[in-house]
Amino acid sequence: MPKMLTSFHKDEEGAVTVDWVVLTAAVCGLALASFASIQQGSRSVGDNVGTYLTDTDVETVMGLVGE
Q1: In this structure, how many other beta carbons lie within 10 angstroms of the beta carbon of residue 45?
Q2: Contact 65, 59 (CB under 8 A)
Q3: Which residues contact residue 59 at a Cβ distance below 8 angstroms, ignoring those fewer than 6 apart?
Q4: CA pair distance 51, 55, nearest whole angstrom
């Protein structure tokens, strides 16, 4: 029994898998945080563009007023 426990304790097989799982989880968390930040910023820009397009007359932009 002690020999089996010593062998189990010295066995490092599978340790790389744990490292990869932790690394993958960190990358996924970073990607989600980045996506949330970009989504918020792009929504704000989209809203501003929509407001501008709604409030602006085509004739004014094209210089057709008074013709």
Answers
A1: 9
A2: yes
A3: 65
A4: 6
pLDDT 10s digits, 16-29: 788 899 999 999 99
pTM: 0.49
Handedness of CA 17, 23, 24, 25 (dihedral sign): positive
Q: How many CB atoms lie within 10 A of CB 48?
A: 10
pLDDT tens by residue, 41-57: 888 889 999 999 898 88
DSSP state for residue 67 in the 8-state scheme: -
What one-letter code names the amino acid at 29? G
